[in-house]
Amino acid sequence: MRAAPLPDxxxxxxxxxxxxxxxxxxGVAAATLLLDRPVSYxxxxxxxxxxxxxxxxxxxxxxxxxxxxxxxxPTRVAYGYLWTCLGTPAAALFPIPEYAExxxxxxxxxxxxxxxxxxxxxxxxxxxxHFPYVHTGILGAEPHTxxxxxxxxxxxxxxxxxxxxxxxxxxxxxxxxxxxxxxxYVYRVPHPFCSVLYKSSALDPARMDVIALFVQPMGQERVRxxxxxxLLDDRNDxxxxxxxQLMIFGQDKPILENQxxxxxxxxxxxxxxxxxxxxxxxxxxxxxxKGITYGTIPAAA
Length: 301
Ligand SMILES: [Fe+2]
Description:
By secondary structure, the chain is α+β, with helices and mostly antiparallel strands. It folds into two domains: 9-84, Rieske Iron-sulfur Protein, CATH 2.102.10; 101-297, Naphthalene 1,2-dioxygenase Alpha Subunit, Chain A, domain 1 (Alpha-Beta Complex). Helix content is 17%, strand content 33%. The chain has helices spanning 9-12, 118-126, 131-134, 238-257, 278-290, and strands spanning 16-20, 30-34, 37-43, 49-53, 75-78, 81-84, 105-114, 151-154, 161-170, 181-191, 194-200, 208-219, 222-231, 264-265, 296-297. The strands form four sheets. It has a seven-stranded antiparallel β-sheet with strand order 7-13-12-11-10-9-8, covered by helices on one side. A three-stranded antiparallel β-sheet has the order 1-6-5, with no helix packed on it. A hairpin with a 6-residue loop joins strand 8 and strand 9 (161-170). The relative contact order is 0.17. The model has no long low-confidence stretch (mean pLDDT 93). The structure holds fe (ii) ion (FE2). Fe (ii) ion binds at residues 130, 134-135, 252. Fe (ii) ion binds next to loops.
């Protein structure tokens, strides 16, 4: 079987998430799809990890010593997930400093298959306008449907999109919320297929919870959405936190899968801009400027 052609060089050289470390059985190979290519991966009991383009002699479910696999793809373990790259990756992955704060609960909440492109999944994550309609009674409720003015910029110090001053009334913003509150959001898009959301903590007004979406492009119209939470929550166990996040994502999944077209149009005239879409417009321009075509419909030259 011929391997699928590689995607645009920017996408090829990105770090991509492929599995939650907690989902791996040490010494046992597992398999997934990344950028249309079968990729296998494993960890050893000592935490060494490996990923490789699938081979007949190391089948999924079979025994493997990760540290002995050669040749292997570049790998790194970050934020509870295993990341790999089919090209030449950057030395560093984007930072999430909060992950290292000792009083946070870090949870690899879910890895969910969705039939949509990676850029559509990120764009939906950035969209506050859908809260009252899709997450009714939890992340939004009528009559609080207005998306208030907010700011979008490319961060000064890093190549990432930053949406700030986002505010939204939420009836039940998290597992520790006791009643509705106006929640402040900051969105970062530090990677073409990953977004990190900060939202007011219901426990500590001076700090924010972190909800990250790491999208694994299996194909141009098929992803696994990996959710990472870094929360101030001393009341609930991981099961309660996961269940809350799964409930939210279960509401998004059919919306995502009904997107048409499944790939994200990058032509500025493709869709009508409204205020809620300000971050989406910035995101589309940023992808286009980078030359990302994977999972998109590039603007006609
Ligand atoms: Fe949503």
